[in-house]
Write a structure and sequence with these properties.
The protein is 27% helix and 27% strand. By secondary structure, it is α/β, with parallel strands linked by helices. It folds into 2 domains: 154 residues, Medium-chain alcohol dehydrogenases, catalytic domain (Quinone Oxidoreductase, Chain A, domain 1); 135 residues, Rossmann fold (3-Layer(aba) Sandwich). Strands 3, 4, 5, 6, 7, 14 and 15 form a 7-stranded mixed sheet that branches. It starts with a strand and ends with a strand.
Amino acid sequence: MTATLTAWSIDRYGAPEVLTPVTRSVPEPGPSEILIRIGASAVTRADGMMRAGRPVFARPFLGLRRPRRDLSGTGLSGEVIAVGHKVTRFAVGDVVFGETGLKFGANASHICLDESGVLMKKPVALSNEDAAVICDGPLTSYHFLHEIGRVQPDQHVLILGGSGSLGSAAVQIAAAAGAHVTATCSIRNAALVSGLGAERVIDYTTEDFTTLPDRYDVIFDTLGITTFGKAKPRLTKAGRYICPVLTLPLLGAMLRSRLSGRRRALFAATGLQPPEKLRAHLGRLLEMVEAGTLSPVLDRVYPLTDLIEAHRYMETGHKRGNLVVV
């Protein structure tokens, strides 16, 4: 009897309701692939944007009229249950975590991935749920803060959106780097964000950071909720505005800021970095987990069958940390 996998298909761009459960044959791993039985997978804001086909100028990569890769999800953790004959990094029985990249398909029961991708062995100290989200908020925030923002000890860093998946990781990563961290969030999340390492919390419902006198060496806009033009007066003379949400205005700001002054708007897609570089970043993140300076924040854990509901909740904009399906 042929083994089957369950997954979620996206046959057209749209709201969470376009997600459709599907059953397919479990694939055989190729020579350099591993077959993973997925224990947990992430539900991220980026997943929602890809499901909706946003931004529109990204569709040449995702698919013009409908997704080229029709399965949902990127971050995962699970057990290796079969390997190709050329595989050397992993063995049957290993528990691994990582991301699928543009192959997608992590919101499923099984997946085949090449061993050369962004995959690592999971430490025993991390649950499948915690490990499944490492490649979203923590990996992206590490890349932007260390590789793009070049955060240094004693610098002043502002995290916009401090309670989300990127923000909750960014607060911890910047604090561990020795920076003085300020973060924005609602008052209901202030205690959480302070506990993660923010020295100051700005309630965005009552205060606008652009009207305050403070200046920052790095402003990390985790949600794309402001612009370089609005943030620029709050940067130091050589300050950097970094944002993982690529828009046409951000592209324009990046070009203009290179031509005048020392303040910069910067972006470099995490997922387009070489896998070996991202694995090195994951290694640093695992060291932080072991040292107790990084702990993924989980808001809700859904069964895989409730993926639509997980996407609906994600799109409310009120989640604290990460969402996972198991």
